[in-house]
Amino acid sequence: MSTGSVAPRVAPARGTSIDDLLARIRAGHRPDVDETDALLHAPLDSLLPVAAALRDEGLVAAGRPGVVTYSRKVFVPLTTLCRDRCHYCVFVDTPGQLNLLRKPAYMSPEQVLTVVRQGQALGCKEALLTLGDRPEERWPEARAWLDAHGFASTIDYVAHIARLITAETGMLVHANPGVMHPDELAALRPVSPSMGMMLETTSRRLFEEPGQVHFGSPDKDPDLRLGVIDDAGAAGIPFTTGILVGIGETVRDRAESLVAMRDRHDRHGHVQEVIVQNFRAKPRTAMQGAPDADLAEYVAAVATARLVFGPRMRIQVPPNLSDPGELGLLIAAGIDDWGGVSPLTADHVNPERPWPQIDDLAVQTAAHGYTLRERLTAHPEFVRDAARWIDPALHAPLRALADAEGLAADVTPHASLPGSAHAVTSGGRGTEGGLPRDVASSARPSSSAHPGSTPSAHPGVPGSDLGVRRLAERAASDPLSLDDADWVRLLRTTGAELDDLTGAADDARRYTVGEPITLVQNRNLTSTGLRRTGRTAPGEFDLDDATAIAADAAALGATEICIQGALRGDEDPAGYLDLVRAVKRGAPDIHVHAYRPLDVRDLADRGGLGLAGALAALREAGVDTVPGTGVKVLSERVRALVAPGDLEIDHWVEGITAAHRAGFRSTSVLFYGHVETADERIAHLRRLREIQTETRGFAEFVPIPLPGGDVPLVADRAPIDEHRAMVAVSRLMLSGSIPHVQIPWTRVGRDTAAVLLRSGGDDLGGTLYDGRVRPDTGIEQGIELPVAAAERIARSLMRPFRLRTTDYRVAAEGGARA
Is the pLDDT score of 818 beyond 70? Predict the structure, then answer.
């Protein structure tokens, strides 16, 4: 996709038919296919003002002027099996791929509830069920799973899971199972207040011609999909649909698709939102070499959708499929909804495109003059008219989550106990992340009459009475419900029990952050080596060297410089700030990840700035994020024995908390395998989670074997099993709190790193380029991880690879890949 400025489109002379057409649309005219085709070819400077004006008119009529909405959701990929063969899809697996990936054919009820409860604790109110179309009609393995669990079809299982989610958590389900027959729509209506299926395109050429994107995909027949949209309207279901731009369709196809969707909506009034989604090429697909949707054409399609549907339709675009700098252009094109955005789970359909942080999306929206508000899975107009649009079985949970406007109320959905009514949480309990701490742990699956129901992961008995597999499942579903003895038991597992533990942790990783393995291109710079007066020994550098080092790192493709280490006592503490400025001179756009709490404390004390002043000065100098290193285990006993020179534990906690509150995100770490006990490891993880609850500042956790420390928790347990247990417990204990678990390949090696990526890890840290300028100034000189080597690790695990930025956004194209 193009970024930045949009290529100019040829504009007709003023006073011609486009201007007349836009004036008529502004006055209420509804364009036909020919007119819509003309709009899609029109210049953006003509389209956008009219589209934006219509959007604003519609928001006023809806009683929420200046409001752009989104839904806070959990993405549940119920099955990745499918009978279709779309050429752009990476969501779908074959049974053989599932076996290699150690993935089940369908998520179990326990796995679903594990993810949903974590999302609930983060304030999610929607569970989006996405899956492949009718896999049992192509794959015997899918049919066998359904038969073994007592389900007549995949749609039957969707209905069971939707019912279970609302019964156990109070959350609402948006079902997106593909093509549905009228009886299936009727079966899902009492358990799913809204449903959806993208039309994508009306192009029969793309469906019928060999080699085209939908050839061989029976569920992508445009007439069949239009029929589903019609049937959903006849059934009175709030429905989401839309088009996909850039998959080989013509502009005329887009025009016909938009008008065809409008025609169905005109019959029934049921289309609650129209998504205009841009194609993004994905690796390992038949279309991996195709260009992304052209930005100008995409924006024209968004604006034209607004013009075709008028002011009262909600026009949605997915914010993660566009670069942040393009979101303002999409707002200008008339959108009023960002769709579902998850604070927990990946976009499993577009795994290479992480969701934006919701706070960041709010800032971006506000920068263009609009307020971001949370909605439910059914849009406000349908919520307010629930008697017509929503099945009576869902009225109570809907009321529990909706405010008077029909938007999401400022409450967290509360799981119901067996036999109790749905309720919302109230004050008086401890909180996690500003939300009730006991939301997940209070949920207890009730018995289900469905033959496919399975035993609860919350059997309601002490963890010490459970087998490790059940205890690990309980840890995945509700980490706060385990006591220290439970966690120590998991940390000490061996043999087949350890396999159960790592399998549960890997599932928790898979169904939250997703499959991608990520890496940042970076270089270390050890600030202890700074000598203002000039270098005199290996590892030393001056400010001019720092500028050259940064410029060289950026030329190699690095997006991050990591700076750590206390300045020598005879160096002016202002050197901390001057070093950052020198780096920014060499690479103005590089991300500076700089200074441990110990280093910041040195600047605060010797520089006379105080902690708050030091952090403000670092921000002004150009620091973007901070390392959460400089601590081994959060225990004074351990510090005294292993690292007495480290910052006192209370001061470290004070420093990292202050950094988070000053707006810096950070890493977090645990060094293990020395004098610490299992209980001290667990206490460390609990303390990190408590800090995260207060600040939400940790982006990742890194469990690091201490160099030279290879003391096993379990006698004779192999080192690799020590690492597997530590990574798995870290993933489970921090699940729903700190999202990413980074594998320290520098300490364990590449082969072991691959094993640990199957134990709950999702990130490989950084490339640690030595660079061509003063390579001896990086603390881990000589052990690089080139991008190509990281890609090979991901390929060996059959998982996608993604270059990231320090803050886990998608890195820009380009850079070194050797």
Answer: no
